[in-house]
Amino acid sequence: MDPLPDLLVEPIVRAALAEDLGRAGDITSQACIDARAGLAAVFAVRSGGVIAGMACARLAIAALDPTARFEAMAADGDAAAPGVILARVEANARALLSAERVALNLMGRLSGVASLTAAYVAQTAGTRARIIDTRKTTPGLRTLEKYAVRCGGGANHRFGLDDAVLIKDNHIAACGGVGAAIDRARATVGHMVKIEVEVDTLAQLRVALDHTPDVVMLDNFSLPDLEAAVAITAGRVVLEASGGVNLATVAAIAATGVDLISVGALTHSAPVLDIGLDAA
């Protein structure tokens, strides 16, 4: 897994450090620890999962101690069993302890997203369906969370409102119909912009197909209707299933033959992976 450039990660890490350090810095470490003391420690997994966010830990420590030594023992996208050491670090003790919570918060959050994504991907093995995320991300963390989805074997939907057209039910209501909304979008956006439309029924799907969108989102379709949609479409457009997707239902949804399955839970409900920092 190719890591994100530090240029994208560092501002997020620094903002989190600024939030945690507050107005006076880490007064506990300042009060208890000599300014010149060093500390060696390891980041270790306490519950197994897929790792993401290694750069967050490295950059958090480096921001407070540019001379720190950070030795990665694992990479983003790796599956790690409980007890596996992810990294060894030697740094100024005050700096390391001041950076600890930010490093662990981001690593745990992103590894949780990657681990949940991997669980969904595993349920779709042997089908054509790809697991994709949504814009239901933590404000300020979208770049990192969508990266974590890729670490877990998933793929990304649009990143924001500006990189693809997604016509949903309220857009359709405001435009006066599925066909009108697609036609207006096609006449307005550039030739590089994909157009996706959300439909609620097979009847709406048939109308949408007459107006040649790039992708059709099948919103809360039953399994029989998903199968019917795949047959009706016959490969003319990409089909995305959305709504009612969880680990208990995703395999059956994938088996209908849809191309994509979007899962908001990947980023809005992923449990944090338990990672700790322990003095070595």
- The N- to C-terminal Cα distance equals 28 Å
Which stretches are poorly predicted, pLDDT < 50 over at least 5 residues? none
What is the CA-based Rg, rounded? Answer: 23 Å
Write the element-wise H/E pattern from the N-terminal end onward.
Answer: HHEEHEEEHEHEHHEHEHEHEHE
User: Mean of the pLDDT scores?
Assistant: 97
Number of helical stretches of at least 4 residues: 11
Side-by-side strand order of the widest sheet: 6-11-10-9-8-7
Helix-residue proportion: 40-55%
What's the count of strands?
A: 12
Supply the helix-strand structural class.
alpha/beta
CATH architecture of the largest domain: Alpha-Beta Barrel
Q: How many separate structural domains?
A: 2
Beta-strand percentage range: 15-25%
**Largest beta-sheet characterization:** 6 strands, parallel
At CATH level 3, the topology of the largest domain is TIM Barrel
CATH top level of the largest domain is Alpha Beta
Gross geometry = elongated
If you had to describe this structure to a student in words, what would you say it looks like?
With 280 residues, the protein is of the alpha/beta class. The chain folds into two domains: 125 residues, Aldehyde Oxidoreductase, domain 3, CATH 3.90.1170.20; 147 residues, Aldolase class I (TIM Barrel, Alpha-Beta Barrel). Helices cover 43% and strands 19% of the residues. It contains eleven helices and twelve strands. The strands form three sheets. A six-stranded parallel beta sheet has the order 6-11-10-9-8-7. Helix 1 crosses helix 4 and helix 8 runs parallel beside helix 9. The longest helix has 31 residues. The radius of gyration is 23 Å and the shape is elongated. The two termini are 28 Å apart. The mean pLDDT is 97.
